[in-house]
Write a structure and sequence with these properties.
With 152 residues, this protein is mostly helical. It has eight helices and no strands.
Amino acid sequence: VAAYSYLLAIRAGLREEKHNAMLAGLLHNIGTYYILSMAGDFPDLVSNDTLKQMGPGISQVLVENWGFPESISTAIERQDEIELARDEDIDELRDILICAILLAREANNTATEETDYDRIPACQALNINSENVPQIIEEYREEVSSFVSALK
């Protein structure tokens, strides 16, 4: 997700935001990891529903408390709002993060259902649609692989 976020920021002409986009991609699931780290102490609280409902909010709070820019914490908090119309003043990073998550799922064959990219406002804003998703994934394959290797 971080690699796709970085590359999508460049693709969108937001070169000055590419590092914030990458950081948002790296940290977007940190709340889920926090919840899972508490599983031993609170096993009844850990479920897929809990992770999905509370993960982004906890991620946002952690990122905010660590002092990262508000644009990153807001993007992380709003990463699941894929159906909502966008606010051009605040949603550039959120758009990138949403699309990066969707592309990563598609590339890794982990999408739980078929995604209608044409109906997602974030995808529309970044000119990502059902026809060009395979091309984008292929175009970024080597760079994403290199990025993932560097993190291992």
